[in-house]
Amino acid sequence: MRGQVRFLLNGEMHTVRDASPTLTVLRYLRENLGLCGSKEGCAEGDCGACTIAQGEIHNGRMRYRAINSCIQFLPTLDGKSIVTVEALKNTDGSLHPVQQAMVDKHGSQCGFCTPGFVMSLFTLYHRAGDHSNIDRLTVNDAIAGNLCRCTGYGPIIEAAQSSCSEQPDDWFTSSEAQLIEALSALDSDQSLLYEHAGQRFFAPHSLAELNKLTAQYPDASILAGGTDAGLWVTKFKRQLDTVIYIANVAELQQIEVSSEQFSLGAGVTYTDALEVLSEHFPDFAEMTRRIGAEQVRNAGTIGGNIANGSPIGDTPPVLIALGARLILSSCNGNREIALEDFFIDYGKQDLRSDEVVAQIVIPKPAVGSQLFCYKISKRFDQDISAVCAAFLIELDNQGVARSFKAAFGGMAGIPARAKHLEQALLGQPWNEQTISSAATQLKLDFNPLSDLRASAEYRLQVAGNLLTKCYLESTGEVGNTRLFGSSRHSYGKR
Questions:
Q1: pTM, to two decimals
Q2: Residues 389/408, Cβ–Cβ less than 8 Å
Q3: N or C: which terminus of the chain carries fewer CB neighbours within 10 A?
Q4: Measured between alpha carbons, how far is 255 from 253 in angstroms, rounded to an integer?
Q5: Is 142 exposed, middle or buried (0-12, 13-18, 19+ CB in 10 A)?
């Protein structure tokens, strides 16, 4: 195994030999290298002041994505290219187009958040080399993870639309071939074992190697995107002695689609999963788009959302309603279980000490079935859910519920199906009277808690209201009920 962390920093080779493996990228940039353009506003991936661009080779080109450097551990940069705000100006001193637009449109006041906005807009500006589809909603999505207390966002949005109204300039493209060559030289079959002051950071390349490590270090912290684990260090001040990073495991990065099912590797990021979800499960895709912001979705994974066992994770209720199954991997082989059986109790999952979540397998729903997903939170974007709900419905020709699955998050210590509700609807006519009667069964399914996000009474009422909303949307008898339009979709009928 290789013992040094190597990456490109603003186009130059950089090697790390003597830093804690759980030191955040932001602290390393500011405190070790004096690159203070990136700021710390929250240390939890919420405000975006720390945003930098992370580059990788994709389809023969350089692809840059925004990430929160405040919660990313330094060794996760191994083999990647990093761009900070200090590198954006041209050699003649002229500003990058998004920087110049921020000046021209008065998009900066106190300036604390400005570098983060600039880096988010930088990745938007250079995305795919085509600005024809960069509309207001695209801009809003790109900067949803960047918070500003001064400008009211109007000038920043104007700067984004102005700078992205023309084709990208040749920033870094003249040296793209050199960057790709340098990154390719960093690519190695050797996995990473980085050690410092008694801490270890493993980054295996294969599932077999990962399984050996989890067997050898059963108490290790498994790290995927770091959008949750990063806070263990920045907020809870935990000492992580052994970290096993799964993002380089090839088998966990695969997305497979067959005639019968979809398979997502546990290391697939939300951003990479969105393409297949958008095509086959529009409602699920829209819910996923509201998980965190682009910086979070570019790093976080559906596998991590499942493995951390949170009762308010957004993806498990949807996956449970879809009948998803998990492939759990260890040196002893694979074990397959239904996702709903994975969650045992609050903070307890059916995962042995030597196992890792390897794949999420989603069966294709019956033709004509409809999936409806809902996320209730205090803010529309980038907020933790109070209640999540997912309904998978299949009606026969007479409008009777042939199949009905309902799963909720935020209603119990684990994400779970509403089995009393399901039984009350199965075989019944899909009408307002049936829905109203069946909703009363939710009190038998759940006894929710009251907390800072919502009261128990609110959660029960909202759960029933979401069932009603699902019914109204499924009949098409009401107007638009979604902020960005309804995602109604009958599976197999496009």
A1: 0.94
A2: yes
A3: C
A4: 7
A5: buried
Residue 429, both tokens: 């006519």
H-state helical runs in 290-376: 294-297, 302-307, 315-321, 339-342
Instruction: Say if CB 402 and CB 394 are below 8 A apart.
Output: yes
| Domains of the chain, first to last | 97-170 (1.10.150.120), 192-245 (3.30.43.10), 250-363 (3.30.465.10), 370-475 (3.30.390.50)
Query: How far is the first Cα of the chain from the last one, in angstroms, to the nearest whole number?
Result: 49
Q: Supply the angle between the helices 270-280 and 282-289 in degrees, to the nearest 10.
A: 150
Residue 127, both tokens: 């995305």
Cβ contact 355:210 at 8 Å: no
CB atoms closer than 10 angstroms to residue 56: 13
Q: Are 243 and 198 in contact (CB under 8 A)?
A: no
Residue 222, Cβ neighbours under 10 Å: how many? 21
Q: How far is CA 368 from CA 461, 489, 490, in A?
A: 29, 9, 5
CA 12 from chain centre, in angstroms, equals 29
Predicted local distance difference test score (pLDDT) of residue 383: 87
246 in the Ramachandran plot: left (φ > 0), alpha (ψ -120 to 50) or beta? alpha
Q: How far apart are alpha carbons 405 and 401 in whole angstroms?
A: 10
Mean pLDDT for each 10-residue chunk of the chain (494 residues)?
Answer: 93 95 98 97 96 93 94 97 94 90 96 97 80 80 94 94 75 73 86 96 97 97 95 96 97 96 97 93 93 95 95 95 98 97 96 97 95 93 92 96 97 97 98 96 96 95 97 83 57 45
Closest CA to 383 of 466, 452, 320, 319: 452
User: CA 95 to CA 93: how far, in whole Å?
Assistant: 6
As a residue count, the chain comes to 494
d(CA 381, CA 110): 24
Distance CA 66, CA 146 (A): 11
Distance CA 69, CA 310 (A): 23
DSSP 29: I
Q: What's the confidence (pLDDT) of residue 132?
A: 62
Q: Which residue is listed with tokens 């990136």?
A: 38
Structure-token pair, residue 321 = 């309603």
Tokens of 305: 């959302």
DSSP letter string over 51-67?
EEEEEEEETTEEEEEEE
DSSP assigned state of 172? T
Q: Which residues contact 482 (CB under 8 A, 6 or more apart)?
A: 286
